[in-house]
Q: What sequence folds into this?
């Protein structure tokens, strides 16, 4: 946002208000346009971020105690692996309640007359959330990665734990009859790289982190509508929305701004 301020010469308050207005419009537009989707193979995953400060709970510094909507947050994403369309997203903590909320959002986007095939990682909360959101009308499997400590790596995580790399993936059917060869989270994990690269609030070790949960959510909504409707996917040669039949041509940033109601 400070970069936009310097480039345009506009006030940071003006840019903040525009982000809020466009973010709300993007949320409403996505809910309306991305609906009644005939499901193909869907991949689920969650990605860490934070608002204002990294940690929460016992690890939170005293000066942050009592502040609401700060600390670690995850974005829960669902992607159609064929069209690369982001079907739904949810921002929250990494618990059962938010897992269920994210799966209910996904179910609302789909035409459930057609049975979806869904894959996720081995996070335990997914299994119960899938059952509550879809019941028996789903083919679901988990791709559980076996991690091994890489002693040669110099990278360490935020809690000073040793860096681990994936050495093997177990594909485990959980409900219904999923094709075991299709159980994977490769595409959604690659999408995380795109999100961290183009939405600076997700970049690690920068000053671009979100200071407000509200604006964090607006920035995500703006990014996902841009990704779905404006950004040409390298392998598809068209946008995900065009591949999914939701758009006839490539959108521009001006088209996104036009989503704002004139009233």
A:
């Amino acid at each position: 946002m400070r970069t936009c301020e310097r480039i345009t010469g506009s006030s940071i308050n003006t840019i903040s208000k525009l982000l809020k207005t466009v973010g709300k419009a993007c949320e409403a537009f996505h809910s309306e346009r991305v609906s009644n989707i005939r499901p193909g193979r869907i991949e689920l995953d969650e990605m860490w971020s934070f608002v204002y400060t990294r940690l929460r709970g016992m690890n939170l510094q005293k000066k942050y105690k009592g502040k609401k909507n700060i600390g670690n947050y995850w974005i829960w994403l669902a992607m159609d692996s064929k069209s690369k369309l982001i079907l739904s997203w949810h921002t929250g903590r990494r618990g059962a309640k938010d897992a269920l909320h994210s799966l209910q959002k996904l179910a609302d986007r789909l035409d459930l007359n057609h049975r979806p095939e869904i894959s996720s990682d081995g996070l335990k909360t997914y299994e119960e959330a899938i059952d509550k959101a879809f019941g028996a009308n789903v083919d679901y499997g988990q791709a559980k990665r076996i991690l091994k400590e890489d002693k040669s790596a110099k990278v360490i995580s935020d809690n000073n734990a040793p860096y681990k790399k994936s050495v093997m993936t177990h594909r485990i059917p959980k409900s219904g009859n999923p094709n075991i060869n299709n159980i994977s989270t490769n595409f959604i994990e690659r999408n995380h790289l795109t999100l961290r690269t183009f939405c600076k609030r997700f970049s690690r070790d920068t000053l671009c982190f979100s200071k407000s949960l509200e604006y964090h959510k607006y920035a995500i909504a703006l990014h996902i509508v841009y990704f779905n409707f404006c950004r040409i996917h390298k392998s598809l040669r068209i946008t995900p929305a065009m591949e999914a039949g939701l758009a006839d041509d490539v959108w521009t940033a001006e088209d996104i701004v036009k989503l704002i109601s004139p009233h």
Summary: The first helix runs from residue 2 to 8. Residues 2-257 form a domain with the Nucleotidyltransferase; domain 5 fold (CATH 3.30.420.10). The first strand starts at residue 41 and ends at 51.
